[in-house]
Amino acid sequence: MIIGNELVETLYDDIFTKVRSGFGVSDEFLLSNFDFENLREGGGKGGSLLSRSLCGNFFVKELSKSDKHTILSGSFCELYSECVLSRDSLLCRILCIFTRRVDGKLYIAMGNCIPISEKSWDLIYDLKGTADDKTLVRNGKTVDEVHKRFWRLDWMFLEAIGKVTKNRLRYVEGKREAFTSSIILTTEQKKEIMTTIKRDLQFFVEQDLMDYSMIVAIKQIDKVHEKISFESTAIHEDMYNSFKVWDGDKLYIVYVGIIDFLQGWTTGKRVAHVIKCMFAPKPISTVHPVVYAEQFENFFEKKFCTT
Predict the structure, then answer these.
(1) pLDDT tens sequence across 8-33
(2) Where is the PIPK domain (predicted)?
(3) I need a labelling partner for 206 at 20 to 30 A (CA). Which of 5, 33, 114, 196 fits?
(4) How far is 5 from 100, CA to CA, in rounded Å?
């Protein structure tokens, strides 16, 4: 396969050819539609490289050591493909796995859970049902991540006397809002999405996975678009999971997708669990896959409120 005009070595492509075909994605989807020079640290704790495709419909991400262990396990790719091709899944669509010849690193290419046809979202949340929840976008503006680090004694002092930077305050408020605010759906929509979540969680538990997130993007739609299929404006619309819902006299479109689901329950995570139980804000994300799945399900059962 050629990605970014560079010949790469694909893995399990007999499986992912079926996934691409199932979602109407050409084998040449990243031929000249990606530039490896755009790869940057994605902002997560692992520091893996990440970049969008030039068209914005896809992402390429470098795999961490733990991600590689999951991807290269005997059954993951086959079971994953069965899950997403059933169409009853919120999982982000992995479209290929490949190794670059120039650096030997392993990458995945995946579909964007949010259509690029909408340029300004009212809200985008990254949700786990834990203290790690955060707001990524609010009122069309990106919410910068401004973490409090123990080695920044100046920050500690300023926060202790009530002097917090605007960006830090906006980030903290966004975290609180992401964890506590409700998302409105109809009764049937909630039933549908919770049934799908439970099916995906069963897959995660069987694969011993945890620390995944739900991306939720929300946009109020003008009344003139009430009878227009919002999704039809986006390319590769089958890759998206979306709902239209009225809340009073306001019409919203809600997109959801589960991402970052390759983290296994490793020795490092077990050690981190002990440390975070003692020092980190609760609820924590670093818990056994069975506990994480139960926590995730219970959170969204309460998060999704019906009209």
Answers:
(1) 999 999 999 999 999 999 999 999 99
(2) 1-304
(3) 114
(4) 12
